[in-house]
Amino acid sequence: MSTNRESAISLETMRHSTAHLLAAAVMELFPTVKLGVGPVVENGFYYDLLAPEPITEAQLSKIEKRMREIKNRGEAFRREELPIDGAIVFFKERQQDFKVELLNDLKTKGTTKIKGEEASEVDPTKPAIASVYHTGKFVDLCRGPHVATTAEIGAFKLNKIAGAYWRGNEKNPQLTRIYGLAFRTEAELAEHLKMLEEAKLRDHRKLGKDLELFTIIDEVGPGLPLFYPKGALLRRLVENYIGELQERRGYLPIWIPHITKGKLYEISGHLQKFDALYPPMRLEGEESYYLKPMNCPHFMMLYRSEPHSYRDLPLRYVCTTTNYRHEKSGELSGLTRVRSLTQDDCHVFAAPAQIEGEINLMLDMIAEVYETFQFKNFWVRISTADPEHPEKYIGDRKVWREAEAALSRLIAGRGWKHELGVGEAAFYGPKLDFMAKDVIGREWQLSTIQLDMNLPERFELEYVDADGAKKRPVVIHRAILGSTERFLGILIEHYAGAFPTWLAPVQVALVPVGEAHFDFARKLGEKITAAGIRVQLDSSSETVGYKIRKAEKQKVPYMLVVGDKEMKSKSLMVRLRGEKEVKKMALTSFLKRLKTEIETKK
Q1: Which domains does the chain have, with CATH numbers?
Q2: pLDDT digit string (tens) for 530-553?
Q3: Which residues are catalytic?
Q4: Per-residue pLDDT, 168
Q5: Which of 17, 263, 346, 597 could make an S-S bridge to 478, C-beta 3.0–4.6 Å?
């Protein structure tokens, strides 16, 4: 049972303190190590270190053992404030070069933050002062807060090692990043470790290969997935479902090219604000062209190319198209972080009075999609601008406040769980980010809706209102899947590759017992195919047992074994995925069952 003191300590504070515990243990074991930074991350923490010899996975247990020893000592976390010059001398004497660099940045720039870093390591309200924390003989530059003593640290486990460039810059030294998990109790840690084991079994990168869905080939390039026929079919099924869903509601498909002149991104502001653009393509005698990293400017130009009346609005343009972003190689992961991402992108051009109705239409679609794909638990982050850093955003602050208030009002009206994400907005407007949990409790960011009152101004978009005056439309950006690739990666793990019948690339596996049964099985397959069912006939010379195990590993929903009995009988012997019992069914009943599952998407 936890004490009142333990309950009062925030989990973030506990995890931050565990990061210090890790660094203290490493310093005791490797006294000449140089310390980077050790922030809190989801479910735990990490610390970046430069050791004289590489730290390996095999040494994690040794480090963890020393961490437990320090925890059991119950050493106090003691805060000390030093003048910046004094702190620089303090860490120079300890040969902690990275800490000295941070302090020099604080002294000359007023902050230790650089692009891509989460937070300063010092108190921004006291720019002339640096705070350090002592834990026994260990000392670190840190703004805190921490637990009172190491004894108050909860359950933890070191779980992996990675490489990381100092401050995310490839020109800097590569450090060893040690990750750890941290929870209040051993029971919570054990539950999380159990979830991680289940996640390994569901890893979409492994399943993608096993199920012949996609691959990533070095000669093509990292972050550029290629899809086999089954994977291409899967993505088409998902994209077609979204397309049909929105076109029934009056959304109009368009098409846009994959490259554009740099002038377009000057107008939109992306050249100034977006940092994942590929270098420009410079053609002799022509302007520079860019691979498009997003679609918004193209939609704006298409709207602007024709005159519009208030009678045209809302105008709902949609396009499923691929964008290209130069994500860092260390951040790429299977389908969930790629360099070629396909978006189900939508931009609605609307009059201000139509905002509520249009966003509610989008919210209805998102709720329907989540129900179809069995994402039963979701919540909404209302992402707003950071008032302390207005330089990150374009547009009038009054317009921003109006947009933020409108989004908050709509979500509150739905009664959906929501939180405010200050500083999480796009540079051109606030947004709604939808966070959904999969079947093993992991949280993913899926859909997004962005309310934009700035790009219409930059692109000088207009419509003629009922009073004859020219007015600016509002633009609502929306993606339900987010990106097809990422959504497919999540789906593969959500279903562990065992897709419901309507999504399964192969819905029925036909397994002839021997060569004498091939012709009958082929004709049966033709009848099933004619009914709109996807069939795969295994015509190999392997044993029937091997063929059955192969179909099971491919996670095919239905399996039909065809032998002498089946050729003589008018009934089918049907094996259902995950069930040992074989069901006897007439062909008409079997087809009716599958059609119902496909039509209802169950």
Answers
A1: 4-196 (3.30.980.10), 205-494 (3.30.930.10), 508-600 (3.40.50.800)
A2: 999 999 999 888 999 999 999 999
A3: 296, 325, 343, 345, 347, 431, 477
A4: 83
A5: 346
